[in-house]
Design brief:
CATH superfamily of the largest domain: Cytochrome c-like domain
Radius of gyration: 20 Å
Number of strands: 9
Helix content: 10-25%
Mean pLDDT: 83
Shape: elongated
Low-confidence stretches: 1-26
Structural class: alpha/beta
CATH class of the largest domain: Mainly Alpha
Oligomer: single chain
């Protein structure tokens, strides 16, 4: 699993690439690095123990690759590498992950500009050493949602789910457009209190997030109006 991930994003349904090409700088800049780091937040958190698609970047400086506590999705190639994340190794990783650790699962070609890499590395080191604040987390705290997002019941009929929420309202979703997910992190929903999160540019897709997988079958009942 990758250490730092940058992903392609969709805008109005059209895939677009995130560009990291920037002018070279004479010296690294922590503030500029903080701006670059926000692109990492699509897949990473800077909060200790808060793992997403990739592992938390908290304390990454000086940590051995593939050893973030609580993260189990590393590639075998990364775990076997015995690399320690220092300025030199991180710079090589960000320049071209496949060249540094062949066979890893990093879906990222690299940052070609040395100045941009230097800025990002300066920021990662400053955060790890407590000299700079980490950016706000990329995901909301699902324990703190209003009644309109709190799911109270889910009914299934034909090819549709009817989701009832704490504000007394309900909405029917085509079964293919409603996903069921789990989030057992500290910021995930409380036990027995799933949360619905909208997705999709047209508002026709959503995900119901549970604290544990066994809650999913408990909430869904086959029932037609």
């Amino acid at each position: 699993m990758a250490l730092v991930s940058f992903v392609r994003i969709a805008l109005l349904g059209i895939a677009g690439g995130v560009s990291f090409v920037a002018p070279s700088y004479g010296a690294e800049d922590v503030e500029r690095g903080a701006q670059v780091s926000r692109s990492c937040m699509a897949c990473h958190s800077f909060s200790p123990g808060r793992h997403m698609t990739g592992p938390s970047l908290a304390g990454v400086w000086g940590r051995r690759a593939g050893t973030a506590a609580g993260f189990s999705r590393y590639s075998d190639a990364l775990k076997r590498s015995e690399i320690v994340w220092t300025e030199k190794s991180l710079d090589a990783w960000l320049r071209k992950p496949a060249a540094l650790i062949p066979g890893n699962t990093m879906l990222f070609d690299g940052i070609p500009d040395p100045g941009t890499r230097a800025d990002l590395l300066a920021y990662l080191q400053a955060v790890s050493e407590g000299r700079a604040s980490a950016p706000e987390r990329g995901l909301p705290n699902l324990k703190r949602v209003d009644a309109s997002s709190q799911v109270t019941a889910i009914r299934y009929c034909g090819d549709a789910y009817r989701v009832l929420t704490g504000d007394g309202k309900s909405r029917t979703w085509w079964e293919f457009n409603l996903r069921f997910k789990t989030d057992g992190s500290p910021d995930g929903p409380s036990t027995g209190k799933p949360v619905i999160v909208g997705s999709g540019m047209q508002g026709d897709r959503a995900a119901v997030v549970f604290s544990r997988p066994e809650e999913i079958s408990m909430f869904i009942r086959r029932e037609c109006p």
